[in-house]
Amino acid sequence: MQPVVLTTERLTLVALTDADVDVMTSYCQDTVLKDAVPVPWPYEREHADGFINELAPQWWAESSEFTWAIRRSGDPLLLGVVGFNVKSSALGYWLGAPHRGKGFMPEAVAAAAKWLHSMGHAELHWEAVVGNAASARVAEKVGFEYTGTAPALGQFRDETHPLCWHARLTADNAEPAHAALPWPT
Ligand SMILES: CC(C)(COP(=O)(O)OP(=O)(O)OC[C@H]1O[C@@H](n2cnc3c(N)ncnc32)[C@H](O)[C@@H]1OP(=O)(O)O)[C@@H](O)C(=O)NCCC(=O)NCCS
Fold first, then answer.
1. pTM of the prediction?
2. Is 109 a member of any domain?
3. Which residues have CB under 8 Å from 119's CB, separation 6+?
4. Which of 90, 104, 152, 169 is most buried by its number of CB atoms within 10 A?
5. C-alpha 171 to ligand 1 mean position (Å)
6. For 16-57, what is each residue's pLDDT tens digit?
């Protein structure tokens, strides 16, 4: 599949480009990211280069993972990333530190989820390491339903599966597989 462009009131979600390599390298020096998402560590420029110029385009082409750069509409600066892995149905996201606290992520995730539902991905999965309240609040604001605590489905860089909060977002016409619980935060 060709990369899909999504728009919201303030944002454009679009494929990463080579021009994002340096800024992504800079954002990914953040230890908050190291502990929250499975980025390589220490994070080097070659990691951003390989992700942006090889992996992400390959995943779009084979429709195995959809990765979007989040930008303000009309501004090429990379703010962060939203990604969806087709096999696990997992939606993940992060923002560069200067761009947090402005409500961008719920807006971006809602747009990605709407498109994914329209493409037939009826149940989207979210997980975050227990205690990641900012990520949980984003998922809750988008309408994800909390389903409980369990080891991460995805493997972390140390090959462990840390204890995570899990949630799901079903398309309007889909039957949820498990009962929802109150959010822990
Ligand atoms: C998760 C992340 C994308 C959220 O982005 P953000 O810009 O902080 O989110 P928002 O400003 O839209 O805030 C979302 C909500 O979370 C709340 N929030 C933010 N940080 C919080 C914290 N540390 N504890 C509790 N709530 C928090 C905000 O108050 C807001 O809620 P409100 O609208 O009811 O006030 C960002 O913190 C991030 O990139 N974190 C590192 C990567 C990461 O954890 N990714 C998710 C992995 S599962």
1. 0.95
2. yes
3. none
4. 169
5. 24
6. 999 999 999 999 999 999 989 989 999 999 999 999 999 999
